[in-house]
What we know:
A: alpha/beta; FAD/NAD(P)-binding domain; 5-stranded parallel β-sheet; B: mainly beta; Rieske Iron-sulfur Protein; 6-stranded antiparallel β-sheet; 3-stranded antiparallel β-sheet; globular; binds siroheme; binds flavin-adenine dinucleotide; binds FE2/S2 (inorganic) cluster
Amino acid sequence: MLKVVVVGNGMVGHHYVEQLVASEIEAHITVIGGETRPAYDRVHLSEVFSGRTPEDLAMTTRDHYRELGVEAHFGDFVASIDRDNKIVTTESGKQYAYDKLVLATGSYPFVPPVKGNDLEPCLVYRTIDDLGMIQAQAKDRKIGVVVGGGLLGLECANAVKNLGLETHVVEFAPGLMGVQLDNGGSAMLRRKIEALGVQVHTSKATQVIEENSDGDTRLVMQFADGGSLATDMIVFSAGIRPYDQLARDCGLTVGERGGIEVDYHCKTSDSDIFAIGECALFGGRIFGLVAPGYRMAEAAVSQLGNDSVAFQGADMSTKLKLLGVDVGSIGDAHGKEEGSVAYTFSDERIDVYKRLIVSADGKKLLGAVLVGDCSDYDTLLQYFLNGIDLPADPQTLILPYNAGEAPALGAAALPATATICSCHNVSKGDIVSAMDAGFCSLAEVKAETAASTGCGGCTALLKNIVDDEMAARGLEVNTAMCEHFNFTRQEMFHVIKVESIKSFEELIEKHGTGRGCDICKPTAGSILASLWNDYVLEDKHVGLQDTNDTFLANMQKNGTYSVVPRIPGGEITPDKLIVLGQVAKKYQLYTKITGAQRVDLFGARVQHLPAIWEELIEAGFETGHAYGKALRTVKSCVGSTWCRYGVQDSVAMALYVENRYKGLRSPHKFKSAVSGCTRECAEAQSKDFGIIATENGWNLFVCGNGGMKPRHADLFATDLDDETLIKYIDRFLMFYVRTADRLQRTSVWMDNLEGGLEYLQKVVIEDSLGIGAELEDQMNNIVDTYQCEWKTTIENPEKLKRFRQFVNSEAEDREIIFVEERGQPRPATEEERQQILAKSA
Amino acid sequence: MSNTQQAIEPQTITLCGLSDLIPNSGICAEVDGQQIALFYLPSETPQVYAIGNWDPIGKAHVLSRGMVGDIGGKLVVASPLYKQHFDLLTGECLENDQVSVSAFSVSLVDDQVLLSL
Ligand code: SRM
Ligand SMILES: Cc1cc2nc3c(=O)[nH]c(=O)nc-3n(C[C@H](O)[C@H](O)[C@H](O)COP(=O)(O)OP(=O)(O)OC[C@H]3O[C@@H](n4cnc5c(N)ncnc54)[C@H](O)[C@@H]3O)c2cc1C
Ligand code: SF4
Ligand code: FES
């Protein structure tokens, strides 16, 4: 097999590996990364200072590479390349043979050759390790200086400022961000940054750095103009230099000012060696951004296959927030092109600066600078990239809106070839085809095309295009649940109710096409259950249930199930606890206290589920519906019975509420909690509905959410008595069940509800729609027809036949393998599983 | 299909009876240590389908416990783990053409499910 060795595991090297793995090309890939950790998102490095962890930034893991069959070594630099024998040798002496070698070594920060630049603490800013160092040195210190007023320098200044230091930026040139901004833009940026308390020193050449013998700072910088600056720490961020030493040493052609020369296939002067990313020099330029690096990686991969992609240079326009200031630069920001015309708008009251560079004939946009307000960036970039003809008065594009109608460039005006997401090279055409293929919502388009999953800069534009396309297709397309029904969930609910439809077959025959799928079937199943509350494993419903509902348990990664008995309010007797322990021991289940006050038993084989439940039901347990889109748990705190602050019996209320709503099927799962006083130990304000005791009764909160996108619940009504509380909850829940979309938690439902909280209060409290009594009746009906699905199942031999591993033997699935960890079983990893299976074979 | 073997005597074995099947859903049978997912769709022709039970993406023997339906006219089962769809006739994965499971030839004769090897 083709041996490909990739040197460097930065963003671009990693992208190369991903692209190669995804291609048709059969190759054994070896990655050698100099840093101790696998590739991470360098672009968002500074977010580590605002709370993201290095793990959040990780783009891959050692395990992931292993799963892909990629051999990866970290923390070892390649020291030399032997081109004759096609072998690379690392610093630790390891050797790897290659057929094709890819250099993705990136670049390192340039430290100006100033005397004293090696004193402590003189640092740089490029890797996660550098961040750690800066953080450590900033501790208990007052002043930090960043040398370099370019893009990276200012980003670094932001980080230093966030660490709480008095921050200075020292720049050699007369202005900030000289590469991307013209003088006017640069001056405006400086004003804004100084207003934030960062001190800017331009036209300053540092001559020497010395230890500070007196005073309370550690270092002092002496400038050529005689001035000086005392500081505790210096971070150099004065540009980058390509890591090209390896290439030089083995005789590859490198540029005069560094960088490994490549052609549009990203081949170096040796046709078996490629260079991509920030170490590569193409057309005399180094591309210091990640998107061009990705395009290079793709071009290099295609060289091993069908040679369909070439690298043709890349646009270097940028939009960013520096120290909270919006800055954008497009194309030729300095108006270098002969005959070009500039338009400038500046407003020092609100600190906004905008400049357009337009071709001599006034037709095309050549460049732009935006400081303080980047809202026009997307539109201008599209004019620039796609060569769209400018309006007759181009200045209207940057004038404030009240100066006249700004000819906004609608999404519809963009050609299909327009690049929307440059990180992932997604064009408008790609988005439209994804939508043609049925991926219509923003989330689906994102998942399908990867657009806006990189730097996020294209998010607004992407949404415009998706909205525009949706409108062009008429509403039906975007709300259809799937190919079988042209309904939203709400419409389906309505139809089932009004026509008293009792089965999926009847529904699809009357209103759908085809046979259904894993989207419409469970939705219909859930609605049928919300309305008629039949036993979910009834013959006519069984095919509608997701596997978890069919087996009344949650499938785990290895095909076994978890067992979650209901423990209402989290209250449990010692005897019941003992039974849980006994059952877990008998069936060798992993036991864990969940995040919602109950106990989960994991690793049950499908054929053991009925016996396990028989024993649990015998001991008085019921199903916990952990598998269903239904009520999960109602958490409680101990409340007034024990707690010295409690003002109501929160446990009793939680028990009542949990027992009332258990089994109710809904668009998504829902959760609740009851706290005995405002200290809120049960965290009720993070629940779909939460109840907090007051001196006079209960406060009701609605539409809270933990999980992926936490939402603080809204206070809905105060000081309710028990009866009113339950009445409101009945109405609230049934209204949600009726009107929410598929898999929409109450939080998202609320955020999309026209009229919001006030409207909901009107419907529930004032009964503005006159459906209050109906909603309550419906709920009472559900409550009265509740059955424990597990109890019904184990009493029904016909239903039990599903719970067999094999229809034609009593054997168990020998390929499900557990190993022991911390005294309990856990699923073997794929590697362990293979080993154990091989041994037993 | 692609790996047509040497012409050996076609052999059939009985997997189970019709009453063991669950309408519009799947079950699993074992033949020589191999797990086979069997689906029974009473209103389709043919009525029974058999593909490998191993989900190559989720890496577990679970396909028999997925939900059946049709996508773009093809009868499919959705993996219960990560929801990719597998064609019940060919074993192909609709989401990823690099991945497929084996498809077996089954028939319903006298209320018995027969597998041809
Ligand atoms: C077991 C448990 C983790 C634990 O060890 O503690 C757990 C486990 C799972 N959670 Fe959870 N969640 C558990 C408490 C929570 C909590 C905390 C809570 O309920 O107080 C939350 C945040 C609160 C919330 O929901 O607002 C939580 C937010 C989620 C989410 C994100 C929901 C959201 O709206 O963003 C999912 C994904 C989903 O439902 O789509 C999820 C999904 C899951 C699934 C079903 C994932 C899956 O499909 O396999 C896990 C399977 C459970 C199983 O096999 O039994 N789990 N999950 C907890 C079971 C609680 C219980 O007794 O029922
Ligand atoms: C703070 C910061 C903010 C940035 N913001 C943006 C932004 O907003 N937008 C944008 O587009 N770009 C941004 N960039 C630039 C972007 O991060 C780079 O363009 C991108 O990371 C380049 O990827 P690369 O893989 O070529 O190089 P790198 O990410 O530098 O990776 C190269 C890797 O190779 C390793 N290596 C070097 N030599 C060897 C050797 N001999 N053997 C083994 N390994 C070796 C290095 O240790 C390194 O891990 C930013 C950069 C920084 C530092
Ligand atoms: S919420 Fe109140 S009553 Fe409940 S435990 Fe906390 S302090 Fe006690
Ligand atoms: S442009 Fe970066 S995510 Fe789309």
